[in-house]
Amino acid sequence: MAEAKDPMDKTLTPDMRTATDATLVPVRRSRLKRLRESDLWFSFRSHPSAIFAAGLLTLIALTAFLAPWITPQNPYDLSSLELWNSEIPPIWNAEGQWPYILGTDTQGRDILSAILYGSRISLVIGFASVILALAVGLALGLVAGFFGGWSDNVIMRIGDVLLSMPFILIAILITAVASASLPTGLKDVLAAPILIVAIAVPSWVQYARTVRASAMVESRKEYVQAARLIRVKAWRIMLHHILPNCMTPIMVAATLNFGLAILSEATLSFLGVGMPPDQPSLGTLIRIGNQYLFSGLWWIVVFPAIQLCLIVLSVNMIGDWLRDALNPKLR
Q1: What pTM was computed for the model?
Q2: What does the CA dihedral 69, 255, 204, 165 come to, rounded to 10 degrees?
Q3: Tell me, what's the pLDDT at 251?
Q4: Smallest Cα–Cα separation from 321: which of 74, 9, 36, 43?
Q5: CB neighbour list of residue 48: distance below 8 Å, 6 or more residues apart
Q6: Residue numbers of the domain that contains 314
Q7: To the nearest 10°, the Cα dihedral for 111, 113, 118, 123?
Q8: Where are the transmembrane segments (predicted)?
Q9: pLDDT at residue 132 above 90?
Q10: Among 123, 187, 244, 255, which has the minimal tally of Cβ within 10 Å of its Cβ?
Q11: What's the CATH number where 123 sits?
């Protein structure tokens, strides 16, 4: 006599497991279909400048992170530099040499290789500083807007103090204090993390003020009050109810601040408190090339400056499109 199957048994048979796996494909396809049919994707497709900026930024990022495989030289390896190959002009010049397409600097470093490696450092530092500032700003903004009271006063007064001082001054102060307190051997090793913190510290205030304003509005609505009545934990209310309604202005601000973070890193490196000369970012390359600008070696400073302008321009164009696409008044 066949054993009766328990209706509450959740064990999947092979046939049921196959059917379950088969249902995953339509779900994934439906998500992709919703993305293709969304207003944001339609706005992107109908915005030529956004497509151009996204393509340009993707090309720059790919070439930067594939630099070890597509560049003729590792500019960070001092043993590979040859002084007799120094000060070579670009390839289209009569004195140019292959494979130094954009020429070399006074140390024999290939400019194209240095630009691609430097772009990778600038992109990583800019992205990491935005993520760090975003995380701190979101957390403090949610706490200030949701709880209010003394926590709101303390957080916002700290933000007001940071906003009362110039951005670059705070960053220079942080890098100077960190460099002075670290041993000599660790200064160059920790140069990138120090820059990330120096750029993120004065940047979180903008995110915190934006999230605080949205959290104060959302915390007074009925669905938040209902969640409080049924004793839902405060962190769940902030993360699952309030935070999703604050993300539209935050996404726009984070995109635009990405370009500002790259410019801030370049400024600090240009001033000599950023990346060291043996690990040059775009700002370091511009600082080094600026010393030889009036001696005829114009390519040392011009090409890194063009690369920096292209990165910031593409990021700002994407940010402008995103701001218009997410603005309900323009739909």
Answers
A1: 0.81
A2: 100
A3: 85
A4: 43
A5: none
A6: 56-76+88-330
A7: 130
A8: 50-70, 121-149, 161-183, 189-207, 246-272, 292-313
A9: yes
A10: 244
A11: 1.10.3720.10
